[in-house]
Design brief:
15 helices, mainly alpha
């Protein structure tokens, strides 16, 4: 078990390094830099050279990368080129907002997904299952910006029930922030529910067709007892990894949703940082989102191994 944990942690560290190198390389290959974005039409000649010297962009790329990586190892994410502030100060509030949005979507979507998936598995191929499964497949196939646009069109433009975009500032209190995130939370919950629902449904169908459930039925064990004591716990174990991956996606992949709804989170900040060619800020956000994704996925995987001794023995 310890060897497995060390192997997963080592793989996670390697992945983070890979993310940092890829992001740095991609930004280096993009036309322009922070100075051309900052100066605009005046970004040429002496003004451009002075700006690059002031921001220390005239040094070789490997030197700048290793200097930034050394700072990260010391807990220093660097300073934003465009905003001239410590990056930890900039991303702190945005990280809180992204966590609030993801947590709200998870608290709504996960229980609904487990409940509907469980019922769909128990009543397989019946009208309820067919209707819910068809809706889930539709929600999984359409892109986030499409579902977000549809929700804005229906509930904001047509019905006028809620605002179409988030107007709260990035330092707004959590309750004020939540009051304006109805549509972003609904968008994320819809996608999250669809993915987890399908996995739970498949798990319930597999458990219902297993030998021990069939034996329990033959012995006359009440159906309710079979469902609560055997089917429910055994069907949720395979879904833990999917739930972990989906929650990791919520925390690390909400760029599109935050951009559509103008939500002041890490995703929106990442889009602005790329537009500004703010390399240290983009690298820091990518590293944070990558770390969140990897840690959440690792925690879900290890939890599944811990709760399932047979799986732990098999993988070890």
């Amino acid at each position: 078990m310890l060897r497995l944990i060390f192997r997963r942690v080592g793989s996670a560290l390697f992945t983070l390094v890979f993310i940092a190198v890829v992001v740095f390389s991609c930004l280096e290959l993009m036309p322009g830099d922070a100075c051309t974005a900052f100066l605009g039409r005046e970004g040429k000649g002496t003004a451009l050279e002075n700006c690059r010297e002031r921001m220390r962009l005239n040094r070789p790329a490997p030197e700048r990368f290793f200097e930034w990586a050394g700072g990260v190892l010391k807990g220093d994410l660097g300073t934003s080129m465009q905003r001239q502030k410590p990056i930890t100060e900039i991303v702190g509030w945005r990280l809180r907002n992204t966590v609030v949005l993801a947590a709200a979507a998870a608290m709504i979507g996960i229980p609904i997904a487990i409940f509907l998936g469980f019922l769909c598995g128990l009543y397989r191929d019946r009208p309820f299952d067919l209707a819910v499964s068809a809706t889930a497949i539709f929600a999984m196939t359409i892109p986030e910006f499409v579902s977000a646009t549809i929700l804005i069109l229906v509930f904001s433009v047509t019905l006028g029930w809620t605002a179409g975009v988030v107007t709260a500032g990035y330092k707004a209190p959590i309750l004020q922030l939540l009051a304006s995130t109805v549509l972003p939370v609904a968008t994320l919950s819809l996608i999250l529910t669809a993915h987890i629902l399908r996995m739970v449904r498949s798990s319930v169908i597999d458990v219902m067709g297993s030998d021990f459930v069939l034996m329990a039925r033959l012995k006359g064990v009440p159906f309710r007892q079979i469902v609560l004591r055997h089917v429910l716990p055994n069907s949720l174990l395979p879904a833990i990894s999917v739930i972990g991956l989906t929650v990791a996606w919520l925390l690390g992949g909400v760029v599109i949703v935050e951009s559509v709804f103008n939500y002041p989170g890490l995703g929106r900040l990442a889009v602005d940082a790329v537009s500004d060619r703010d390399l240290p800020l983009v690298q820091a956000i990518a590293l944070l989102l990558g770390a969140i994704y990897i840690i959440t996925n690792l925690a879900a995987d290890l939890l599944a191994l811990f709760l399932n001794p047979r799986l732990r023995t098999h993988r070890a």
